[in-house]
Amino acid sequence: MRGFAVPRRLIGSPLQLLLLACSFALAGYAGVRLFAGDWFKVGLWFVGAAVLHDLVLVPLYAAADRTVAGALGAVHRRAWIPYVRVPAALSGLLLLVWFPLISGRAAGRYRLLTGLSPDGFLARWLLITAFLFGGSALLLVLRLRRAAKQRPPAVH
């Protein structure tokens, strides 16, 4: 009797397995180093982040997604949603990470710790956001033009 054979598409290449093992080893090392300090506060932070994400951010994501889908309307336009979703998510992530400097709340501390000027974070974030949405719009236009060229002409 032959043993149970796992399909190759489930396992991946040896390089993928090696990279996966390395990433688990690195994550394990980071976890050991992270929890070596005050493990209770770190655990509390992880639980708080999960609760905040699940109870606050996911409903906001869903509401924003429904709003965009409703604004775009027709079923064939639902393919346009990622062209709004991706730049919005990246812009939101940048805002989340850099909010203290974008809002100016940490300007004095930033200057004291780094010796650099905290000015311009809001302008740079707005510029990056405009670039993300502009690039996404350009990709959508290129995709629509390519699809229009590939579509056979209508016969009347």
Keywords:
156 residues; mainly alpha; 0% strand; extended
> What's the order of the H and E elements?
HHHHHH
What is the number of beta strands?
A: 0
Mean pLDDT: 84
Number of helices, where a helix is a run of at least 4 consecutive DSSP H or I residues:
6
- What is the straight-line distance between the termini? 64 Å
Compile the SSE list and pairings.
Blueprint: H1 8-11, H2 14-35, H3 39-72, H4 82-102, H5 107-114, H6 121-150
What does the model show?
76% of the residues lie in helices and 0% in strands. The chain has 6 helices and no strands. The longest helix is centred in the middle third of the chain and has 34 residues, at 39-72. It is extended and about 75 Å long.
Summary, kept brief:
The chain is built from 6 helices and no strands. The chain has 156 residues and is mostly helical. Among the domains are: 37 residues; 64 residues, no CATH class.
